[in-house]
Amino acid sequence: MHQSKENRQHIDCFAIREKTIYVSARQLLHPCCHTGHFNSCTAVDDSVLDLKKYSIKEILDSGSFNNIKNSWNNYETVEPVCKKLCSVTENEKSRKVKTGIINIINF
């Protein structure tokens, strides 16, 4: 069954929209607080996000964050945390996600 254009889902990424990244208490650099907080991102191995081993530049240059963004190309393969928290329809302008997490940093 095909969805109408108005009901078709896509990702309105909070982190991209707000230009933020997230540093966890374990000193891991995540694309957003949701992937870091829920620790449920399957597209990125935590070991490549370790700020004790790698600089911010090295982590960003590694392409790890792109794995998540690339999952958005097909709504069926979207990272579950992205689908749950940042999914919108064509009719919605953007999802207003409550973070409540204080260690988001502007980048």
**Major pleated sheet:** 3 strands, antiparallel
How far apart are the termini? 41 Å
Radius of gyration: 14 Å
Approximately how much beta-strand content do the residues carry? 5-15%
User: Outline, from the CA principal axes?
Assistant: elongated
Mean pLDDT: 77
Secondary-structure class: alpha+beta
Count of discrete domains: 1
How many β-strand runs? 5
What is the helix content? 25-40%
Structure explained in plain terms:
- The N and C termini lie far apart (41 Å).
- The protein is built from five helices and five strands, in the order βαββααααββ.
- It has helices spanning 14-18, 33-38, 56-61, 64-71, 80-86, and strands spanning 9-11, 20-23, 29-30, 87-89, 104-106.
- It has one domain.
- The radius of gyration is 14 Å and the shape is elongated.
- 30% of the residues lie in helices and 14% in strands.
- It is α+β, with helices and mostly antiparallel strands and 107 residues long.
- The strands form two sheets. A three-stranded antiparallel sheet has the order 3-2-5. A two-stranded antiparallel ribbon has the order 1-4.
What's the short story on this structure?
With 107 residues, this protein is α+β, with helices and mostly antiparallel strands.
